[in-house]
Amino acid sequence: GTDKIEAISFNLEKVDGPEVCLNPEALAKLRNVRLLHLNHANFVFEPYNLPLELEWLEWHGCPIRWVPENISLQKVAVIDLSGSMIIWLTDSRYQPGKRVSKFYLFTVPYVVVLVVGSHMYLPCMQRFEKLKHLYLSGCMNLRTTFDIAYFPNLEKIVLDNCENLCQLHGFDTLKKLTHLSMKRCSELRELPNSIGQVSCLKFLDISLCTKLSSLPEDLGNWKSLTKFKAKRCGIVVLTETLGTLEKLEKLSLKGCIGIQTLPLSMRKMKSLSKLNISCTRISQFPEDFGMISELTSLKAKGCRIKQLPEGFGMLVKLRTLSVETPKTNHNIKFPSSFCGLCSLEKLTILGGSGSNEADDGFLSSLRSLNFKGSSLPNLPINMSGVTNLSSLNLHDCEQLVFLLHCPPLCPTLKPASAVLWREFRTFQT
Q1: pTM summary value
Q2: 292-429 CATH pick, 3.40.50.1100, 1.10.10.60, 3.80.10.10, 3.30.230.20
Q3: How far apart are CA 429 and CA 427, in angstroms?
Q4: Mapped to the 3 state alphabet, what secondary structure does the chain carry?
Q5: Which of 43, 202, 380, 418 sees the fewest Cβ atoms within 10 Å?
């Protein structure tokens, strides 16, 4: 009978007809249930008892406003109360229904993952030695983080869409934290220096933190960081200690319109493979940018890049290069070393104006070439050795006069004009 049931799962969010109310006494009889999903469920009265063997409780849209003081969650490993209404606590020190500023869960000593959404304040809990993952996405009224000393073994924290979060505390105590996501925390103005001391951090996302204007001055302890996302945040200056992130593989600064320069220390980033600086105000790369030897993808669309440094051709592992400039800017100047990009497969150069001399070398690995909207009179590369080209886009290249040594027949071609198309076909025959 009921002793053999170990999992119950249902979702009443979109149930048509009269409201379905459950009897909590029936749940208490299911002694061996370990997984219980009660999403958007209502009870005829509040559940004061849950199955004793329960390890995973998921209750999205939980309607109760306080936790019954005698409820037992001793073996629960996962709690997911996303979108809940919990803002009150029934406790011997408080009268039922009394609004309190903090939410206590003193009876959950073995929590491994805790997910609580849309409650008034972050729980102030006793020390959770087992707590590893903490999800608090969408807690719209969360203004400050908890005393993290209660969670010494946290490995992952997600605070996405906490739009009123403005203060962070105590991150220097998190010796095992590897993942921190704070996307769209639009009221967050600064990262405490304690975050810069988290030595095990591997992933950091501060995208859409529009009021966040700077990073901690010293990032030297982020020795393990491999992925850093800061899309469309308010950062104005990148600290020189960014170059100490020797294990960083992916860096995205897309849409950070306040950033005008890259730190000179970037040459030290030996592991960086993907860099996105699109839609920033960066106008040039450091002279020794070519020393980032592992770089495979560089996106700089919507920037103000005027020229590529002479050492750019040292990026022998670069496979994707995308650069777009406003048409009011001077055309991008290509260095003589440009054709040293022996691994380049996809080249996109959009916009720009002026003239440029074609290089004598060629890029034999190119598969996709996009010069849409460019005002170049000729392409900056010798096309004779581009034998693997499968896509060529010359649409809206109004000033393009000729192609130097056209490639063999290209399956996908968007010509600049009917005249150029006739010339192109003539070259191919």
Answers
A1: 0.76
A2: 3.80.10.10
A3: 6
A4: CHHHCCEEEEECCCCCCCCCEECHHHHHCCCCCCEEEEECCEECCCCCCCCCCCCEEECCCCCCCEECCCCCCCCCCEEEECCCCCCEECCCCCCCCCECCCCCCCCCCCCCEEEECCCCCCCCCCCCCCCCEEECCCCCCCCECCCHHHCCCCCEEECCCCCCCCECCCHHHCCCCCEEECCCCCCCCCCCHHHHHCCCCCEEECCCCCCCCCCCCCCCCCCCCCEEECCCCCCCCCCHHHHHCCCCCEEECCCCCCCCCCCHHHHHCCCCCEEECCCCCCCCCCCCHHHCCCCCEEEECCCCCCECCHHHHHCCCCCEEEEEECCCCCCCECCCCHHHCCCCCEEEEEECCCCCCCCCCCCCCCCEEECCCCCCCECCCCCCCCCCCCEEECCCCCCCCECCCCCCCCCEEECCCHHHHHHHHHHHC
A5: 418
